TrEMBL record:
Pathway: Secondary metabolite biosynthesis. Heme binds at C515. Keywords: Heme, Iron, Membrane, Metal-binding, Monooxygenase, Oxidoreductase, Transmembrane, Transmembrane helix. Belongs to the cytochrome P450 family. GO terms for molecular function: heme binding; iron ion binding; monooxygenase activity; oxidoreductase activity, acting on paired donors, with incorporation or reduction of molecular oxygen. It comes from Grifola frondosa (Maitake). This is Cytochrome P450 67. The chain crosses the membrane at residues 53-73, 80-99. The keyword Oxidoreductase applies. Coiled coil: none annotated. Its cofactor is heme.
Length: 572
């Protein structure tokens, strides 16, 4: 172990080296004390894991500093410090790493790559590349339905684990949220780990997305969708659909949350707002992999000043919105308990987070699905024409294509939306949960999750598993939904087995913490498609390579970064 001790020393000359060799020969007692202290620190940290910087500093610095003081009478101060800290830290790190790959680790039975078992830094690197969803899919292909993707984390591709993990009596949200929101005290509904508190905070959201409330939002969505389709129709320069859907969903969610915002469709991203959001998503997706690091990062001046600026802006918008009151019954009306259902109003802090969450949760997800939906249609002309004809049947010229009354009678429209959500779930890596410390662990389907294990169902892999959807598992084939519902006779070739497992379709997650905005999202998707197809004829721009579009899809928690999707548009 004394060899490890000199890792902390950096001898610059032969003299230094010989001096260190002499010292090492006499340092056995120092090293022994440091080794014991490091092993104890590992044990203590394992039992009482915490995000407290004070505790981290205490465990990292106090024991070796104490050992160094003990040996000051035998060595020069600098030697005592270097040897003590070098030994302590290297024994601590080695002990942690060796434990993680040892047969004594509670997750030792689950397979996975060595780098992932050792630490989550490698996963953070993968997350930064935007290809985490493909990486985890490959791991499942190689290792099976459960794979260790971190020292204390697994990813699951098994439908029987969905209900026990995320259903009623499922597990609480995992530590991703701490890293994602750069705070150990998560106050965004979507990351609240305490299930009772989550259920309490979700109540106004449920009222905000009731059928009656959705009816009230139609005025907002109708105005914005008409603006979107007019803007697209007036473009002569092959507009990028992804960019326009991004502007559109940003405007809609700002209307719903704050009664208005930066008017992206009218003015473009003049303040660089979307650029800031982009960088924020990348950054928080990386930090979500290493939650403890985010607790440190938030104190870096450049980070803290950006976070504070954004928080201050959200706070000002929220206060202004409270002061102005509601002009319409928008989402904020319910979140702020303006309907007077709750006995007390929400705290300002909760309201700031939830107002902001309307935009964070509702904008990128919907625009990602819209863009991928048109990508699928434009690269499958037959499906495009069939949908066009269904839209024309219900919404011929002169008929209001934004009226929702025919949506239930449009099986192909719904099949196209489902098939897009199956192939390109907006949140491909799923919703992280944890078997908490002290819980004794939890059985989820055929697997046992020891306590302190995080786990997610990998939506992308479950959706693209031939055991759940066959044939043409990786292709856009909306007919599978019609066949499954008994609405179409275009059966697959006899030789191929038709499999359609609805329980494996979870683009909006599952259970009491699933997407509360699902009905609004689906309604928006249907309305945009109906009006766009009634008014416009679209074709892919010459030269767009569908394969490179797919390869360019990047996931930063949301499958949100898409290569440009330029289209040629003519009015119909
Ligand atoms: C097609 C579009 C959408 C998809 C695919 C989608 C998907 C999801 C998923 C998978 C979750 C679970 C996330 C997690 O557990 O970490 C979620 C949560 C959530 N979504 Fe959506 N979403 C969409 C649109 C929307 C819209 C339009 C809104 C509202 C404006 C919204 C609001 C929320 C909220 C508030 C949560 C947190 C719910 C909770 O924790 O109880 N979503 N969404």
């Amino acid at each position: 172990m004394w060899i490890l001790g000199i890792i902390g020393c950096t001898p610059k000359s032969r003299n230094d080296i010989s001096r260190i060799i002499v010292i090492i020969a006499h340092t056995q007692p120092v090293c022994k004390t440091d080794q014991n202290a490091a092993l104890s620190a590992h044990f203590i940290f394992k039992c009482y894991e915490t995000y407290s910087i004070t505790v981290h500093a205490g465990l990292l610095f106090l024991p070796p500093a104490g050992c160094a003081v003990l040996f000051l009478n035998q060595y020069r101060p600098i030697d005592a410090i270097l040897i003590s800290f070098g030994t302590y830290l290297s024994v601590l790190v080695s002990s942690i790493l060796m434990y993680r790959i040892s047969p004594f680790h509670p997750l030792a039975q689950y397979p996975g790559p060595l780098l992932n078992k050792l630490s989550k830094f490698f996963m953070a690197y993968i997350a930064g590349s935007g290809k985490q969803y493909l990486y985890i899919q490959k791991l499942h292909e190689r290792y099976g339905d459960i794979v260790r993707i971190g020292p204390n984390e697994v990813s699951i591709r098994d439908v029987s684990a969905i209900h026990p993990l995320m259903g009623t009596n499922g597990l609480p949200k995992g530590p991703h949220a701490v890293g994602k929101y750069v705070s150990p005290n998560v106050n965004y509904l979507v990351g609240i780990p305490d299930q009772r508190e989550h259920a309490r905070r979700r109540k106004p959201w449920i009222r905000a997305f009731s059928p009656a409330a959705l009816k009230g939002y139609e005025e907002i969505t109708v105005k914005r969708i008409a603006q979107l389709v007019n803007a697209l129709a007036s473009k002569s320069d092959d507009p990028d659909l992804g960019k326009w859907f991004g502007y559109f969903t940003f405007d809609v969610t700002n209307d719903l949350a704050y009664g208005g915002g930066p008017e992206m469709m009218r003015d473009g991203d003049t303040d660089g707002m979307l650029h800031i959001l982009d960088s924020g998503f990348v950054f928080s997706h990386i930090l979500a992999q290493i939650p403890w690091l985010s607790v440190y990062v938030q104190y870096m001046p450049i980070i803290s000043s950006t976070i504070n600026k954004v928080k201050e802006m959200d706070k000002l918008r929220t206060i202004k919105r409270i002061k102005d009151g509601s002009l319409a019954h928008d989402v904020f009306y319910y979140l702020n308990n303006e309907d007077g259902v709750e006995s007390s109003p929400p705290s300002l802090d909760a309201l700031i987070c939830d107002g902001n969450l309307v935009i964070l949760a509702g904008a990128d997800t919907t625009s990602s699905v819209l863009t991928n939906l048109f990508f699928c249609l434009l690269t499958n002309r037959d499906a495009y024409d069939r949908l066009q004809s269904e839209v024309d049947t219900h919404y011929p010229p002169g008929e209001d294509a934004l009226a929702t009354k025919y949506h239930a009678d449009m099986p192909f429209l719904n099949a196209v939306i489902n098939e897009t959500l199956r192939l390109y779930p907006a949140i491909p890596n799923g919703s992280q949960r944890i078997a908490e410390k002290g819980s004794g662990g939890r059985v989820v389907g055929p697997y046992f999750l020891p306590e302190n294990t995080s786990a997610s169902i990998h939506f992308y892999s479950v959706h693209r598993d031939p055991r759940n959807f066959s044939p043409f598992t990786n292709s856009f084939w909306p007919d599978r939904w019609l066949i499954a519902a008994g609405e179409d006779t275009s059966r697959p070739p006899d030789s191929e087995k038709f499999v359609h497992n609805c329980a494996a379709f979870i683009p909006f997650s599952y259970g009491p913490e699933n997407c509360v905005g699902k009905n609004l999202a689906l309604q928006e998707l249907r309305m945009v498609v109906c009006l766009a197809m009634q008014k416009l004829d679209m074709r892919l721009s010459e030269g767009l390579n569908p394969q490179s579009y797919e390869e360019g899809l990047l996931d930063y928690f949301v499958l949100r970064k898409q290569p440009p999707l330029p289209v040629v548009i003519n009015r119909r």
